[in-house]
Design goal:
Helix content: 25-40%
Number of strands: 11
Shape: elongated
Low-confidence stretches: 3-14
Order of helices and strands: EEEHHEEEEHEHHEEHEH
Number of helices: 7
Strand content: 15-25%
Radius of gyration: 23 Å
Distance between the termini: 29 Å
Mean pLDDT: 92
Structural class: alpha+beta
Length: 252
């Protein structure tokens, strides 16, 4: 792109001026871009957005992934499923520089099973089934949070888990939570079976909250661009190619 000569004003706040960057292009011309015109949010990566399904295809992609996972687990464990909440599209209103982003974020319904076996061996099999589908779809495997590797080097987190749940051993926790990520797409998975908590504390808490005490829950989301907006989106990105976005100057 040539050499960057100036990277402009920063500062978070509603009244901050949009930052600009001035650089010399390969033809020797001085070019100034205003980040207010950046078509994505400051913290988004355009390449990841372009790799995601376009807005018009997203719901079909989510439905197919859900159906594959639910069908496989139902066949193995005779599970029944119910949808909770509502799916929805949400426009990204700001780009962090006082301008308008051209992206949309989708959050699916939550699919929740009505039962879940208690054994760790079965949980590992279930995660293996889910990982097979998320990997095949390009999302990669679900990464548990916490996972055993991160816990091994985090005594403070181990202490927190023991204080809250009585154990820092994932094979004994009554819940697992994790997410498969691929750029701007994600699939989140939560497993809960209060029977794994021998203290009875979890069972009491879930009874009082009326949350499902034995279930798998799965949700999907993505941030993407409309097919109709793609040409304009790509054109808007051209002037920013090779530049590092500055820190946001507005809180949107």
């Amino acid at each position: 792109m040539g050499s960057v000569a100036v990277a402009a004003l920063l500062g978070l706040g509603a009244c901050a001026a949009p930052p600009t960057t001035t650089y010399t292009n390969e033809a020797g011309q001085e070019v100034t871009v205003n980040w207010k015109d950046y078509p994505v949010h400051a913290y988004s990566l355009p390449a990841e957005l372009l790799d995601a399904p376009v807005k018009e295809d997203t719901e079909a992609v989510a439905a197919e992934l859900f159906e594959e996972i639910k069908t496989a687990l139902t066949a193995e464990y005779r599970m029944e499923w119910e949808a909770r909440g509502e799916a929805g599209w949400f426009p990204t209103t700001g780009n962090g520089y006082g301008g308008q982003a051209m992206t949309y974020t989708y959050n699916s319904v939550e699919w929740r099973s009505t039962t879940l076996p208690p054994s760790t061996a079965e949980w590992k099999k279930i995660m293996s089934v889910i990982n097979g589908f998320t990997t095949a779809s390009g999302l990669g495997p679900v990464k548990l949070t916490p996972d055993s590797d991160s816990l091994a080097n985090d005594p403070e987190r181990q202490k927190e888990l023991v204080e809250e749940y009585g154990t820092a051993d994932l094979d004994k926790l009554y819940w697992w939570a994790g997410t498969a990520y691929s750029g701007s797409q994600w699939l989140s998975v939560n497993l809960v079976n209060v029977a794994r908590d021998t203290s009875g504390k979890a069972a009491k808490e879930y009874q009082e909250s009326e949350l499902p005490a034995r279930s798998i829950s799965i949700t999907y989301g993505t941030t993407t661009v409309s097919r109709a907006d793609l040409p304009t989106f790509k054109k808007a990105l051209e002037q920013f190619e090779g530049l590092t976005p500055p820190e946001p100057t507005t809180s949107d």
